[in-house]
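Our consortium's second objective concerns turning raw sequence data into structural hypotheses that experimental partners can test. To show how far this objective has progressed, the report includes one record in full. It was chosen at random from the queue rather than selected for favorable results. The single chain below, 309 residues long, was entered without modification.
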Amino acid sequence: MEILKEIPKLKNKNCVSIGKFDGVHLGHVTLLEELVLNSELNETESCVFTFDPYPEDFFSKRELPHLNTRGEIISEMEEIGVDRLIRAKFDEKLMNMSPRDFIKDIIVGKLNASVVVCGSDVSFGKGGEGNADLLLKLSEEFGFETQIIEKIEYKNETISSSRIIKALEEGNIKDASEMLGYDYYHYGPVVKGKGLAHQFDMPTVNINPVPGRVIPKYGVYCTIVETSDHEEYKAVTNVGIRPSVSDGDNVNIESHLIDCPKDKDFYGERINVYFLEFLREERKFDSNESLFNQISNDIIEAERFFKNN
């Protein structure tokens, strides 16, 4: 897949999709698959037009947490079969273009769009004034076809990145996973913890959250830990600052592996931690004994969850 930071002048016809594409979820995947299908049927290339930075990051003047990193989103687009990704600089000039000029000068004039594939909630141009109805009118004026894809719903509401982020931050892991189409996860190399794990007679692995990715609500979860060799272990995972064993505010993801050989060494290995079920909120304990007793109870709850699921 070709990745461009500048808007090119394309000679060949293209199927183009416009959007933020700020995460990988069922709505985005459906739209991208429709884009690629249209490009194949029309014997053209598929082109995604998106923004860098994301508009919400631009207006907030900082990088907000998102569902996925840009690298992850690019990998998903490549897997689906997108031919070209344009990450146009979102600045005052682009922000203030009228909807008509945006379509005329960029989508048609530069990207040579023969088909535009967008979600029913598409917005473009100054103030987001351009919408699906206007796009249909402009397609008649400028001679391209428009495919409007209805938004996918979950529990009678549209699936969106912001809705999934809210679910994760509230600990509603099941809802988030249903809207994502996969179990939400964090990943990274195993790092050294506080050295208290030997109390539980089972391997414990720590990773740091992926920078820029949403961190689920602080608390304890039933999880699956996957190694780089694709071995999977049931686990109880704490997400948070571990107030009982640390005075800092660095967020840590610590997993106690329930069904793993006791002598297995994970240090330095890259693992994925998939979140399945929220068990309880993170809290501070008065003593290590109280903490260990609670973690033992968490493990019992997790074993019950895995037995029933």
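The partners drew two points from this record. The first strand starts at residue 2 and ends at 4. Residues 2-158 form a domain with the Rossmann fold fold (CATH 3.40.50.620). Both points have been shared with the crystallography group to help prioritize constructs.
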